[in-house]
Specification:
347 residues, alpha/beta, Translation Initiation Factor IF3, UDP-n-acetylglucosamine1-carboxyvinyl-transferase, Chain, Dihydrodipicolinate Reductase, domain 2, four-stranded mixed beta sheet, 9 helices, 16 strands, 34% helix, globular
């Protein structure tokens, strides 16, 4: 096999982060096309493969029977030659607090293409910075995919905070072939807000103050909200606020993590401010979900569209990667940082 046979993806393109790696691996496996990745995470301060990215490579390789070269910590280039995607049971562990949710999102598209049923366990960080927390997947990502025809069940066995991780997520799904147009462009109409204020190995008053601040913010806005309190076991301290906005045709999620020296009220305000920003946009999807479901729009035949609260460089970069692999074209209306419309068409 010559270099010309590979699809070559530059990991420093656009946003230049780990999403380029994950989307490329997923689509290489789905299409069966050999992949050469260069400049992996080229725009990150610590470029190259970190533990969670390496686990993602290993997971995609295991599911697709791929032959991988140069997949080592710190490496900026690798080759990935997929064979046949196989369902079954898989167990992957990140040896740090790397995001288990991101590894899960990398391999889910593959397993929906596999024959029969599959189940998997992914260990690592379940509520860590720069990644969707488990509750976002459970309350927003998975329900939205279910509407699109991708069926999945997930549950959390253990929570994992930064820096020790040690969390665990379980998922089960079966193969499917969704078809038909997907339209998610109705202006969001808020029906209710639910959420949690959670903490581990911290005084009770922290999660109580987070919840109190949330309820104050929603009361001032005239919004009824149900916010639960959770004290969860973990290997190290951590705290979280997660909010889910339920609309007539879609759901959206917003979260904030606690940190040393960060007041509980600020944790609550960050999540509440993000929710209010989304509501003001009148878009159907929050900007995190818009980026995460792109690959599912791409692999589902037909014309699809959605509105999002913010066009991000992350979204545009992901579109670029997808269009390198598949005969699809995305039209984006709206500038970076603005609410916008995304339309996918088959070429």
């Amino acid at each position: 096999m010559t270099t010309q046979d590979f699809i070559i993806i530059d990991g420093s393109y656009g946003e230049g982060g780990g999403q380029i790696l994950r989307t490329s691996l997923s689509l290489a496996a789905i299409t069966g096309r050999p992949l050469k990745l260069v400049n992996i995470r080229g725009k990150r301060k610590k470029s190259g493969l970190r533990p969670q990215h390496l686990t993602g490579v290993q997971a995609c390789a295991a599911v697709s029977g791929a032959k991988v070269a140069d997949a080592k910590l710190g490496k900026q280039n690798l080759t990935f030659k997929p064979e046949e995607i196989s369902g079954g049971f898989y167990n992957f562990r990140i040896p740090t607090a790397g995001a288990a949710t991101l590894v899960l999102q990398a391999i889910l598209p593959l397993l929906w293409k596999a024959k029969g049923e599959s189940s998997l366990v992914v260990g690592g960080g379940t509520h860590v910075p720069w990644s969707p927390p488990f509750h976002y997947l459970a309350e927003v990502f998975v329900p939205t995919l279910d509407r699109l025809g991708f069926r999945c069940e997930i549950q959390i066995s253990r929570w994992g905070w930064y820096p020790k991780g040690g969390g665990e997520i379980k998922a089960s799904l079966r193969s499917c072939k969704p078809s038909g147009s997907i339209i998610l462009d109705r202006p969001f109409e808020l029906k209710r807000v639910t959420g949690i204020s959670a903490s581990s190995l911290l005084p009770e008053h922290i999660r109580v103050r987070q919840r109190r601040q949330l309820l104050l913010r929603f009361e001032k806005a005239g919004i009824d909200a149900e916010i639960g309190l959770m004290d969860v076991p973990a290997l190290n301290p951590g705290s979280l606020v997660f909010l889910c906005a339920h609309g007539g045709g879609s759901v959206a999620g917003f979260s904030s993590l606690g940190a040393r020296g960060k007041r509980a009220e600020r944790v609550a305000d960050e999540a509440a401010n993000a929710l209010f920003y989304f509501l003001d946009s009148k878009a159907a999807l929050d900007h995190y979900l818009a980026d995460q479901i792109l690959i599912y729009f791409a692999i589902t035949p037909g014309e699809h569209r959605f509105t999002t609260s913010k066009i991000t460089q992350h979204l545009l970069t992901n579109i670029w990667v997808i269009e390198q692999f598949l005969p699809v074209h995305f039209e984006v209306e709206g500038g970076v940082g603005e609410a916008g419309l995304v339309i996918k068409r088959d070429v």
